[in-house]
């Protein structure tokens, strides 16, 4: 009784391309902002001294690029979670007859 | 007969998504707003492609030199220590967006947004290679003839070249563009420069060539929240429903009113010219980038029909309701004063910017030291940061206590441009006069430019008396 067939009147199925866009685009914007603020205060050359020789051969340009990618990946993970939570949310079923407004 | 509501109405047709979106063929148009937009494109892109090549004092005039971590802005050189200016600049940019949006709607979108500006340029190329709207539609529908292949290839070659040049120019603001150019010519470009040029070129090509209005519709956050900055006194592009409806075709010169018709002849030109493919007659929509193309199209039609211009026009909701429009209103005053405040702070701090920083740290090991029996010595470490774009020799001075003398550094201290120098300093005073804690001032002055001078407070400590 509680199980119901998928409703044909659900909002039209959107391709996964949309979700990819929703993940990559806001995280890209966030990454731009984060890189700007972070690298204004922190010199990527300092990364050389951080960690166990992980960044030993890193020059500044590589530091900027890796930092940008890092922020982008973190942002993308957050966006993925948001999209996932929104997509898998259980919504109240629409009453029959009341169409989309 | 209600005037268009300020609330954003959803686009009436079910909004298509991404690739499924129907291709929009904006019709070419001329008129006041189109000319303004063309001027904006020429000026802004001219600045973008041109300024990168300007020289100043033997270096690139505008260069955000990330590898060296310094920004050259004509005569000014900024270091990471000048972070404040970046913050102020971002605040000013945000406030300007609020101010101009509240005043005149989406000026940014219509005239200045890189998305609009580059799309315009790409559409010009498209019109030049593939012809006008009807020809482009026919070309796309038709079979792959030699002409089609040639026209499409020509377009792609121009697009790719332009996109590559754009990527090159963009990266040229972050690494010296002449070196970059030489690197490309000699095929010796670094991997990161290559990567960023390709990325920005690809983004330009994709955004201006293919995504176009979809960026504004689906990707732009500003388009979604701009309505929060709108009120009934904001200039928006509106269709005068009271005047236009009921719409319908009629013969030229026919008395429309007596036939029960409004001024809109339903020619749909306003829809055909729209770069985002909306019908402005449905009211204000968030897809509208306020480019004014529909105004130009409609004015032309009204001229031909012998009706007054302005069936579609820049107006406010208050004006459409025939009530007074207030340009000066609390919101505008708040935005304007915040803008003036931030702008004033930026100008003031730039004008009074002292290209020298002195940090004084007292020696942590000993409060004081007795030397030669009758004198007391305190030790400090000084951090001198030269933010000027040339080296300076500085003289250190002390004041604030009788008999206080500097014993080290002995002579002037030279610090290279943009670098930090850590040096020890020692002060001495007669034991008789140095009991307790004294507030003293260290002064650092550039020998060749007395204007460059900083004062730093610190303490001189003697034996408790």
Give a written overview of the molecule.
The complex is a heterodimer of chains A (101) and B (465). Chain A has 101 residues and is mainly alpha-helical. Chain A has 2 helices and no strands. In chain A, α1 crosses α2. The longest helix of chain A has 28 residues, at 60-87. Chain A is elongated, with a radius of gyration of 21 Å. The model of chain A is unreliable at 1-11 (pLDDT under 50). Chain B has 465 residues and is α+β, with helices and mostly antiparallel strands. Among the domains of chain B are: 25-78 and 113-211, no CATH class; 356-461, Immunoglobulins (Immunoglobulin-like, Sandwich), CATH 2.60.40.10. In chain B, 41% of the residues lie in helices and 19% in strands. Chain B has 15 helices and 16 strands. In chain B, α4 (114-130) runs antiparallel to α6. Chain B is elongated and about 110 Å long. The relative contact order of chain B is 0.12. The chains are: A mainly alpha (101), B alpha+beta (465). Chains A and B meet through α1 and α2 of A and α8 of B.
The count of strands of chain A amounts to 0
The parts of chain B where pLDDT drops under 50 for at least 5 residues are 1-5, 14-19
Structural class of chain A: mainly alpha
Helical amount of chain B: 40-55%
Distance between the termini of chain A: 27 Å
Give a quick account of the main beta sheet of chain B: strands, pairing sense, barrel closure. Answer: 5 strands, antiparallel
H/I helix tally of chain A: 2
**Which assembly state applies to the chains in this document?**
heterodimer
User: What is the typical, i.e. mean, pLDDT of chain B?
Assistant: 87
How much of the sequence of chain A is in beta strands?
A: under 5%
Query: Largest chain interface and its two residue counts?
Result: A-B, 20 and 19 residues
Nearest-integer average pLDDT of chain A:
77
Number of strands of chain B: 16
So how many helices of chain B?
A: 15
Residues in helix, % of chain A: 40-55%
Question: Approximately what portion of the residues of chain B adopt beta-strand conformation?
Answer: 15-25%
User: What pattern of helices and strands is seen along the backbone of chain A?
Assistant: HH
Major beta sheet summary of chain A:
none
């Amino acid at each position: 009784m509680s199980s119901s067939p998928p409703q044909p009147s659900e909002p039209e199925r959107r391709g996964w391309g949309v979700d990819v866009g929703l993940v990559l685009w806001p995280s890209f914007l966030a990454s731009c902002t984060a890189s700007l603020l972070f690298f204004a205060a922190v010199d990527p050359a300092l990364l050389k001294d951080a960690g166990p020789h992980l960044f030993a051969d890193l020059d500044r340009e590589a530091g900027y690029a890796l930092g940008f990618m890092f922020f982008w990946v973190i942002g993308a993970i957050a966006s993925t979670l948001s999209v996932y939570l929104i997509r898998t949310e259980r919504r109240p079923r629409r009453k029959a007859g009341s169409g989309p407004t | 007969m209600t005037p268009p509501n300020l609330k954003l109405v959803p686009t009436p047709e079910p909004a298509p998504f991404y690739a499924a979106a129907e291709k929009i063929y904006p019709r070419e148009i001329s008129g006041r707003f189109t000319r303004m937009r063309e001027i904006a494109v020429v000026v802004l892109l001219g600045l973008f492609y041109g300024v990168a090549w300007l020289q100043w004092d033997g270096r690139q005039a505008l260069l955000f030199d990330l590898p060296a971590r310094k920004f050259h802005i004509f005569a000014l050189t900024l270091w990471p220590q000048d972070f404040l200016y970046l913050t102020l600049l971002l605040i000013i940019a945000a406030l300007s967006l609020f101010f101009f949006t509240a005043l005149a709607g989406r000026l940014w979108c219509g005239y200045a947004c890189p998305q609009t500006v580059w799309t315009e340029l790409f559409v010009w190329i498209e019109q030049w290679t593939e012809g006008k709207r009807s020809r482009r539609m026919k070309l796309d529908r038709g079979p792959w003839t030699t002409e089609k292949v040639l026209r499409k290839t020509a377009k792609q070659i121009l697009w790719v070249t332009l996109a590559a040049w754009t990527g090159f120019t963009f990266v040229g603001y972050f690494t010296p563009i002449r070196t970059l150019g030489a690197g490309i010519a000699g095929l010796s470009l670094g991997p990161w420069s290559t990567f960023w040029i390709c990325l920005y070129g690809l983004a330009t090509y994709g955004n201006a060539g293919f995504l176009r209005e979809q960026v504004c519709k689906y990707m732009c956050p500003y388009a979604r929240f701009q309505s929060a900055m709108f009120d009934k006194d904001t200039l928006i592009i509106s269709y005068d429903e009271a005047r236009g409806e009921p719409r319908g075709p009629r013969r030229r010169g026919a008395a429309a009113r007596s036939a029960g018709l409004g001024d809109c002849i339903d020619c749909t030109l306003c829809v055909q010219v729209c770069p985002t493919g909306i019908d402005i007659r449905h009211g204000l929509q968030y897809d509208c980038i306020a480019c004014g193309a529909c105004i130009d199209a409609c004015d032309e039609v009204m001229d031909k029909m012998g009706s007054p211009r302005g069936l579609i026009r820049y107006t406010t909701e208050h004006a459409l309701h025939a009530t007074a429009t207030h340009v000066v209103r609390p919101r505008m005053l708040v935005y304007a004063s915040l803008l003036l405040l931030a702008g004033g702070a930026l100008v003031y701090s730039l004008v009074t910017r002292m290209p020298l920083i002195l940090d004084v740290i007292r020696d942590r090991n000993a409060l004081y030291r007795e030397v030669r029996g009758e004198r007391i010595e305190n030790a400090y470490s000084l951090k001198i940061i030269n933010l000027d774009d040339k080296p300076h020799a500085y003289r250190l001075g002390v004041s604030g206590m009788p008999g206080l003398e500097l014993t080290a550094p002995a002579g002037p201290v030279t610090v290279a441009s943009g670098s930090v120098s850590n040096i020890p300093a020692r002060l001495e005073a007669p034991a008789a006069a140095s009991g307790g804690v004294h507030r003293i001032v260290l002064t650092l002055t550039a020998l060749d430019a007395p204007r460059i001078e900083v004062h730093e407070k610190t303490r001189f400590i003697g034996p408790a008396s």
